[in-house]
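Example for tutorial group B:
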């Protein structure tokens, strides 16, 4: 497991608006960028950071933000408060701006690279839960990129046994990937953040009709974690026991006197009605286990099921199905 990441003072994923977008970059921006590249090559890192920042502030261009993010990330270790504040925050801000610029320009390859960079940031920062959200986006934008399999392997390994530190980091808006993950959460999921076309690729199987009403997602701090169950059962597997114990511990620490909502989700295989019922029953089963482990949470956790209605991964691979089988935890505002 990754070590605990100390506080990252990320105020927001959105920074002050630059003076021009990529379609109208003035010569001044390109000159600043070339000077930054030269300084980077000569290992004049402070000069390079300053010049990349100036170029990006003059013109909101994907390449400028990525170069700035990479320069900061190369020095980011994630193992001290000073390192987090000095190297982590600027890298995270720059990668987030690069992703947003790529989306604006319809630059799928650039968006995928920025998303993979955010995955690497999350791994290094001890935040594999939010890293997985950007990994899903990277896979949808550029599914055949050779860096995906090793990233998937590392994220899956870290998410299989989540420490209390990792759960707390993922629930926080000031640790790990922090508020940057909100840009996906506010859109609903990774593909909706990018475009509706990405959510409905050509040839994707139609979702089975359902009478379930559309439900507006409650507001609050939220994460989605993998909880493994026996086939067609509400019994959790022994391998997932530690995740439930650590989840109970973190919720007792983090929730205060707030209400908590567990939402069970299923993949699209099987009958929609069965998936809806089973996802609701599984959420209730985890609720009961958590309340038994932490009696202070008794009566404060409600459980719902959404079946296959809210997939986070539009793929049809086993990994996509696994991403969609999840427990969503929301500490309600």
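The residue assignment follows.
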């Amino acid at each position: 497991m990754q070590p605990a990441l100390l506080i990252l003072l990320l105020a927001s994923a959105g920074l002050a608006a630059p003076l021009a977008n990529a379609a109208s970059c003035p010569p001044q921006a390109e000159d600043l960028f070339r000077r930054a590249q030269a300084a980077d090559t000569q290992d004049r890192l402070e000069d390079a950071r300053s010049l990349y920042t100036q170029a990006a502030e003059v013109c909101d261009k994907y390449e400028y933000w990525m170069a700035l993010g990479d320069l900061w990330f190369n020095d980011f270790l994630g193992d001290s408060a000073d390192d987090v504040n000095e190297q982590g925050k600027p890298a995270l801000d720059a990668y987030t701006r690069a992703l947003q610029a790529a989306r604006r320009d319809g630059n799928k390859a650039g968006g995928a690279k920025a998303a993979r960079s955010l995955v690497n940031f999350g791994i290094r920062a001890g935040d594999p839960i939010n890293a997985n959200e950007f990994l899903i986006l990277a896979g949808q934008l550029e599914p055949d990129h050779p860096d995906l399999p090793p990233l998937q392997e590392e994220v899956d390994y870290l998410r299989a046994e989540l420490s209390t530190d990792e759960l707390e980091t993922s629930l926080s808006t000031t640790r790990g990937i922090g508020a940057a993950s909100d840009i996906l959460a506010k859109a609903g999921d990774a593909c909706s953040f990018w475009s509706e076309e990405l959510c409905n690729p050509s040839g994707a199987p139609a979702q089975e009709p359902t009478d379930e009403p559309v439900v507006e997602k409650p507001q609050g701090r939220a994460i989605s974690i993998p909880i493994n169950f026996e086939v067609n059962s509400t019994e959790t597997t022994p391998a997932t026991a530690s995740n439930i114990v650590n989840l109970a511990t973190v919720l007792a620490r983090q929730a205060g006197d707030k209400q908590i909502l567990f939402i069970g989700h299923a993949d699209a295989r099987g009958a929609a009605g069965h998936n809806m019922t089973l996802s609701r029953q599984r959420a209730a089963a985890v609720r009961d286990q958590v309340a038994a482990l932490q009696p202070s949470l008794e009566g404060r956790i409600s459980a719902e099921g959404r079946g296959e209605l809210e997939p986070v991964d539009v793929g049809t691979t086993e990994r996509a199905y696994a991403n969609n089988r999840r427990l969503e935890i929301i500490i309600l505002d």
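The chain is about 50% helix and 10% strand. Compare this with the pattern of hydrophobic and polar residues in the output above.
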